[in-house]
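user: can you give me the structure for this one chain? tokens are fine.
assistant: on it. calling the predictor now.
[tool input]
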Amino acid sequence: MTSIIHHWINGELQPSTAERYGDVFNPATGEVSASVSMGNSDDLNKAVESASKAFETWSQTSVTKRAQIFFKYKELLETNREELIELITKEHGKVASDAAGSLQRGIEVVDFVCGIPHLLKGEFSEQVGTGIDCYSTRQPIGVCSGVTPFNFPAMVPMWMFPIAIACGNTFILKPSEKDPSCAMKLAELLQEAGLPKGVLNVVNGDKEVVDAILDHPSIKTFSFVGSTPVAQYVHEKASANGKRVQALGGAKNHAIVLEDASLEQTTNAIIGAAYGSAGERCMAISVVVVVEGVADELCKLLSEKASALKIGPGNEAENEMGPLITNDHKNKVIDYIQQGIDSGAKILLDGREHEMTNKPGFFLGPTLFDGVSPEMSIYKEEIFGPVLVVLRVKDFNAAIRLANEHQFGNGVAIFTNQGSKAREFVHSVEVGMVGINVAIPVPLSFYTFGGWKDSIFGSSNIYGMDGIRFFTRTKTVTARWVDDDETINLSMPTVE
């Protein structure tokens, strides 16, 4: 009998009132490892009630006390690092080294909010007018929420709730139903660190819970990372319901390779960015745009290095790439491979032929296409799997045009040793994140993460100071202490 993953509400495990359950797989074996409760509006209402009550006291808790809890939380995350890595690998499938890296990027956000006393400092201007001072403060909003994807069960939740909670809000997290255990452990550890009950709640489920969050009037913010169609849907619905929205969508990240690039190093970087986590990253490099003069050599190197990757269960240290998340997703990626062949692209490496593809689990070998053109689906659409496509262009300007014309604008990388070209690229390319000889330009926690165009909906990026601003409201105070002989004045006030 498999274990059942319930909800975390008011500081304890609570079963769902619904009678629906979802299967949680071990992608490396294809076996069901657990069942997860599919919550409903009743479960959400309990979480909102708990979070609303907790907000009354948590919002009044000193910012110093909040910081101390997160210092302790960081310590506990590091102490329990191996258990968290194991949970990620078991339910997502990514290799342990990749799981460790993603966990660390989440911990970096916790490290960032340990400085919340400084981050929440307002501004003060003395004597803006005669006898008048002006200052601002940042105050919490209330009950906040987040819906996170399967591909980063630790990192992406920690992009959201630590910032929201450190700012004085309470939070309801709906993790992916495909790998929910890590989120539950994160909640348990935060309570162990001293977080009061009800400040962080986890409600498991699917679209039914998401819609309940979107519609609930007591939830003030909605944060989302996932596919573009869903990001657009939640942005429209949450905005219509008066919520603040962070909605990060899909990507088709390009790597631009110029003729002067160091091809060996460039190839190594692209291979890691394309096939790491089996391509299930919104920051994965899925397109290589290469200047014609070095295209043949680059394709040869990419094919050789991709075919040499060690594929297998994530808990075996020698493996470099694990399985996809589900069999349905594996079949979806396989369908894209066939679409590429049918559209006339030249397949240099066919992941369907890899020895692991027909073994237990949801494995698919790396795939590489050459001769791809912009009208092909394998170029236009986000595949979210170990499929890399190569487009050849005549020069640098053509490469920029290609990237700028794509509907997604999440991240791009340029590989070159020419500083002037790199600078021009940074200035001209229409994306939110740029790497210069860096294949995966995920900003550190004290900057911010977000794309352009159809990669984001709404005006707010995630984490960094954008996160602080998103989870707080600015209050500006103009103060004047008047004498008893002040007279009535109906004019618009001015300062002297």
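assistant: here you go. The domain at 3-249+455-477 is CATH 3.40.605.10 (Aldehyde Dehydrogenase; Chain A, domain 1). The first helix runs from residue 41 to 58.
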